[in-house]
Amino acid sequence: MRLVLPALFLSISTAAAPAQDWQKARDAMVDTQIASRGITDARVLSVMRSVPRHLFVPEDLRAQSYQDHPLPIGEGQTISQPYIVALMTEVLRLSGADKVLEVGTGSGYQAAILSRLAREVVTIEIRKPLYERAVPLLSSLGCANVTALNGDGYYGSEARAPFDAIMITAAVNHVPPPLLKQLKDGGRMVLPLGNPFSYQELVLITKNGASASIEHITGVLFVPLTR
Amino acid sequence: MILAAVFSLSLSSLSYELLITRFFSIAHWSHLSFLAVGVAMFGYAAGGAAFGLVRRGERRQPSSLLMAALLTCSLSTIGSFLAVKALPLDYLRFPVDRAQAFYLLLSWILLSLPFFACGAASVAAYSHRPDLSGAIAGASLLGSAAGALAPAVLLPLVEEGGCVVFSALVPLAAAFIAARRLAPRILSALCCALLGALFAWQRAGALAVAPSPYKTLPLLRQAPGTVVTSRTPGLRGRLEVVESPSIRFAPGLSLAWQDELPRQTGLVTDGDALSVLYDFSDRGAPRFAAWTHSFAPFVVAGQGNCLILQQDGGLAAACAIASLSPGVLVLEDPRVARRAAFQYDGQHLRVIAESPRAYLARPGGAFSTILIEDWGPSLPGMASLQADNLLTVDSFRACWMRLDRGGALAVSRRNVLPPSDSLRLFSEILQALSDAGVADPSSHLAVIRSWDSCTIVAAREPLRGATLERLAAFSESRAFDLDYYPGVDPSRTNRFSRYQQPLFAEAYLGITQDAGYVRRQALDVAPQTDDRPFPSHFVKWTRVKDFSRATGGRAYTLLLTGEIIAGTVLVEVVVVGAALLAAMLVPGRRHRGGPRGAAGLFLLVGMTGIGFMATEMYAINAASLLFPSPGVSLSISLGGILLFSALGGAASEAVPRRALGPILFTASAASAAFCLALPAAFSSALPAAFPGKAAAALGLLALPGFLIGIPFPAAMRVLASDSRQRAQAWAVNGCASVIVAAASALVAPAAGFRALLVAAAAAYAIAAAAAAALQRRPVTP
């Protein structure tokens, strides 16, 4: 049952897939899902147009790589909705000279995006199967400035700290104190609030000496709802 | 043979229905467990309809039909469970994988097969022995009552897989005992042996239900060093105790906290909803809790006796210990109480297994601080169909009455956008204070918010002067926003954790200043009461478009919302029910111009189906207030009402045709009286000990249960003219029940459970009128 039915219905899924013109699909994704929703950073838009997202998506879902939703990648993890990836990247305001820490490598897609916008990227994944899948993929895409680690991202990487920016892609109920310590003064940390399958807003933390300010980036999500 | 078969089939199928709810809750998400009602009712109705359509069944011996039904039910129970468990159904892949719709449909059909067998057998029994209609109804309802109780008893012993094997064994055992010929006896013995082997296999975990890979437990398990140390299955949910270095639970922790968190033991229910018990063996361990906003009530009330209302561990105990309160009482879920007492041994903290509402209803001492800990569901929308009597106006009022002078009540919750969850709690507390006679409730409230959660504090004395200054200093030092306080200064809100506009602060202010504010919200954020205890229900059907727009406009979000699932199920059962009835009721050539009064009979049995199901749903919810565990509540209320209905069914054999109308009128009046009297009666039984509460619940359910058990079998016996009409009547009754079961999931959260009893009373009144009309007609030969 486990083998026969998926095989039977895989044909249905792939038959309904759009044409495999990936570049065209990426351009459409950027135009209709990202730029139209207010992402204006030209570098972010350019990188989103160039990184082949479909390579980070499981083969059976590849036809939907550039659609406007997250996709499961196995191990109970997801690759985020393209708009959320772009929004998280934009709010970090990377200059090209930054050292960035990513907590939760997942598929590696976000690290690939960051690698083209930062000087150095350290990405940590606690789940070994995901780590082992992401490392060769990042390498094959020429992301030489990415250091992937297999470990507990809660503690960051003391050895490689401090960081100009930190991106937490895993769900957390509090900001890990070790990560805040490893953020440079004036550095920015972004994390998503909410579940990728549901709806998400972003929390942007800016470190100011001993204190930190927090800003909610609701993106296209929220409009006041009284009448 | 007939009665034994009907009894065992009913026992097996109701037990399996409850197990399907457990399966969906663990393997997928709890709001999908609602599908079980539709699956079961569809199977019952379709089975009855199929019997009516395939007329050959009438000519066969009832014993051979029942034997076939027993074997089919048994094998399809275990077969459907194994098949559905093996299907790669992944609910969260629904919008991206078209095959998932097929898997869901296939699951639906497979799971309905045992109910199909049960439905067909029941109609066969009614058709072949109309003179035994009352006894058949009694056996069916008695079996269902036993089936409601069986999982409550067996789940903790043999887990979900073992219970399914039990459900499959019951009809087989009946087949073995009842078989007169050798072949079926050998066949059923072989099947029994096979199931016995399966049972042994399940002990090795082969039949265990694995949680969705997106849930907390499977994710935690991928982290090195994670161990599940114990597992307690039950109707309330499967609780697993997890040790893992990756468990770090500290919602609402200030960014100013720079140290380590204490070691924690994780508690997950149905593979999700992580909560913890902290390890306080290190004296400094609870210090972190003073840096969470849940500590705010201690800033207001100072040190004093503290009452904590929590389910499955949490942060509140750490706050109470950090506050150095001299006495702390924790009311905990029975499954966790012993473990929590052991974990907190040595602290000035006492843990008891008690229902919070029952404890609060008893006379007793006052507390300086009362903390309610409930962070809400991990995915917004998932818990929208779950009733919870802890977060209602009535509950907050009961807490308020137990506060001493200078005391404070607090509830902590995750922030949800658009602002909804905390708005509802805020307005509920305002309402509770107003009901308790507080002159200016808004002068007693404050809301402290971090980036992801908030605590609402209600102080016994108006918040002003030194108390307010202390609270402001606490918030300032921890970079929390004080979103509301009496005389709130808008410039002091939205400072630390900033939204583009002060969404929450404006909303709280709006609630206190504008009586129509809550009503105008696109989401339903109206205060919940014990009659409508759905703290996570927010969808307004008239504003679904707004809801979708506000949550990103993706189908994903809607699919995660319980109301949408319930709505989809309702549409589905209406369509399927209509198709089944059309197939059965459109007269064939042979039956054109059939017996008079068929329409009246179908109206009567349809209305009794609506009345019975609505009363049952109401009773289950009303009893949930009484008992600490919803599983216990479900078993007692459902088991009780079915038991008394079984007695009513048995008594229906003595009911003459002319008495049917008056009985239906009495059932209607009883439903109405029940509606008026039951909440007060259950509330007065709240302080009693468990045996007293169980006796009260059963006593209160006895009369309505007995009355609603009479009409259907009596109508089948005295009004249905032939076996075809009995099958049709069964199908009409089943379809009406299905539709009500599905509709009740939408009606109760929107209009309250009392609306169900009003519907039941109306349905019985219509049925009584139909009975009176039928009575005036001559008896069909």
Question: Mind explaining what this structure looks like?
Answer:
The complex is a heterodimer of chains A (227) and B (781). Helices cover 30% and strands 24% of the residues of chain A. By secondary structure, chain A is α/β, with parallel strands linked by helices. Chain A has one domain (21-217): 3-Layer(aba) Sandwich (Rossmann fold), CATH 3.40.50.150. In chain A, the strands form 2 sheets. In chain A, strands 5-4-3-6-7-8-9 form a 7-stranded mixed β-sheet. A two-stranded antiparallel ribbon of chain A has the order 1-2. In chain A, helix 2 (22-34) runs antiparallel to helix 3 and helix 2 (22-34) crosses helix 4 (82-91). The radius of gyration of chain A is 18 Å and the shape is globular. The model of chain A is unreliable at 1-17 and 222-227 (pLDDT under 50). Chain B has 781 residues and is an alpha/beta fold. Chain B folds into 3 domains: 1-211, Growth Hormone, Chain: A (Up-down Bundle); 279-539, 3-Layer(aba) Sandwich (Rossmann fold); 561-781, Up-down Bundle (Growth Hormone, Chain: A), CATH 1.20.1250. In chain B, 57% of the residues lie in helices and 10% in strands. Chains A and B meet through helix 1, strand 1, helix 7, strand 8 and strand 9 of A and helix 5, strand 13 and helix 18 of B. Strand 9 of chain A pairs parallel with strand 13 (497-498) of chain B, so a sheet runs across the interface.
Write the layout of secondary structure elements.
The complex is a heterodimer of chains A (227) and B (781).
Chain A: H1 4-15, H2 22-34, H3 42-50, E1 71-74, E2 77-79, H4 82-91, E3 99-103, H5 109-115, E4 120-125, H6 128-140, E5 146-150, E6 163-168, H7 177-181, E7 183-193, E8 201-208, E9 211-217
Parallel strand pairs in A: 3-4, 3-6, 4-5, 6-7
Antiparallel strand pairs in A: 1-2, 7-8, 8-9
Chain B: H1 2-27, H2 35-53, H3 56-59, H4 62-86, H5 99-128, H6 133-178, H7 182-203, H8 216-221, E1 227-232, E2 239-243, E3 264-269, E4 272-278, H9 296-301, E5 306-309, H10 316-322, E6 328-332, H11 334-343, E7 349-353, H12 356-361, E8 367-373, H13 393-401, E9 403-414, H14 421-435, E10 445-449, E11 453-459, H15 465-477, E12 481-484, E13 497-498, H16 503-513, H17 517-520, H18 544-550, H19 555-559, H20 562-585, H21 598-624, H22 630-651, H23 660-685, H24 690-709, H25 711-718, H26 723-751, H27 754-775
Parallel strand pairs in B: 5-6, 5-8, 6-7, 8-9
Antiparallel strand pairs in B: 1-2, 2-3, 3-4, 9-11, 10-11, 10-12
